[in-house]
Amino acid sequence: MKYKLIAMDMDGTLLNSQKQVTEYTKDVLRRASEKGIKLVICTGRIFTSAKSYARIIGTKAPIIASNGAYIREKDRNEVIYEKYIKKETLLDIIKVTREWGFYPHIYTTDTIYSEKLIHSSLNYSKWNETVPEDERINIQIVDSLEDVVEKEGENFLKVVVMALEDEVEKLQELKKYIRDNMDVSIFSSYMNNFEIMDKEVSKGNALKRLAEFFDIDREAIVCFGDNENDKTMFEFAGFPIAMGNAEEEIKKIAAYVTDTNDNDGVAKAIEELILRE
């Protein structure tokens, strides 16, 4: 089988623990691209952040961002797919999350709104200090998220809720409550967070749409991932590869388990299984 597309999660997968792509990995990805293989970033991150890493690795393929809620060309303002959370659903999520004692963050394609500079908004504010101006995330700290939603309408791709170490158990209880009581899609990339999107959104559905866009058979698709939000992508791709640091649930449904993200697991698997074909 000649593989035509490689979809890669970012955190815990393509990026090492220092949030970097090593020179070895960049070289392997460059060689894969030269063979005509499309390199696709498939991430929970906001599009602007994903775009920055897409530039680093040199991929020209569209980016799947916000866990599949948004697919867009990297170098052109061409949106392939977008799915926003319904306004009333979003207001319910904000209300419930606040009642449980957490600070929800709501995301558009390029902006994060929060009522406090904490967790992901704080992390992205630090990120902004390290990247060019056109790759910075617009962070808005506001008095009321409800007022923002009333003003902006259905313009939000996802909600992110994060917890401190001593709040993780409570966070997981809230995640279960929302999953059981709201008609939404909800995933975690780590135990200390979860992300909420429209019920139709997942990385797997987004990868399916992109495969149709390029007219690529699913059996010609390789994907890499490490956590719960990658599961649907693994279920769609013809050859799913789990990282050595992946959750056990992900390893069980993988066709192959590679090395960890800190040991160039993505590059090693591509070089061994694809470039040597």
From TrEMBL:
Keyword Coiled coil among UniProt keywords: yes
Gene3D superfamilies the UniProt entry points to: 3.30.1240.10, HAD superfamily/HAD-like (3.40.50.1000)
GO CC aspect terms: cytosol
Species assigned in the record: Caloramator proteoclasticus DSM 10124
Protein name: Haloacid dehalogenase-like hydrolase
Coiled coil: 154-181
Signal peptide boundaries: none
Nucleotide-binding is among the record's keywords: no
One Pfam family it belongs to: Hydrolase_3
PROSITE patterns per record: COF_1 (PS01228), COF_2 (PS01229)
UniProtKB keywords: Coiled coil
